[in-house]
Design goal:
HNH; HNH nuclease domain-containing protein; mainly alpha; about 35% helix
Length: about 120
């Protein structure tokens, strides 16, 4: 079965080969493992994060015109951002959140393609 060619680490300036999730051994941090024991806690913490961010912001931080309806991570969790810290959150309207997510994904894909 064919496999993908090796690629370089996604972290800017790092030239090591990626070993997992596009990162080298130095920059790779494993995802939090979910289990039957912590699923409810994760949901509670996620709801608390969302409500704290939306309560704090109220209006979209990007455009400042519409009500904030989505809690977005300023620094994506995949890039090392804190998952449940409201300081890493911002309230966005749906169109601004979609636009931000698309641009982050496009940048991540361009970085992977450069290899």
């Amino acid at each position: 079965m064919p496999t993908a060619p090796p690629s370089r680490c996604l972290v800017t300036g790092c030239t090591d080969w990626a070993v997992a999730r596009g990162r080298c051994a130095e920059h790779y941090t494993p995802w939090e493992q979910r289990s039957a024991r912590n699923t409810n806690t994760d949901r509670r913490r996620a709801r608390a994060f969302r409500s704290a961010v939306l309560r704090r912001d109220g209006v979209c931080r990007a455009c400042g015109q519409r009500d904030a309806v989505e809690a977005d991570h300023v620094r994506p969790v995949a890039d090392g951002g804190a998952r449940y810290d409201p300081a890493n959150g911002q309230g966005l309207c749906a169109p601004c959140h979609d636009s931000k997510t698309r641009s982050e994904n496009a940048a991540r894909n361009r970085q992977r393609a450069r290899g």
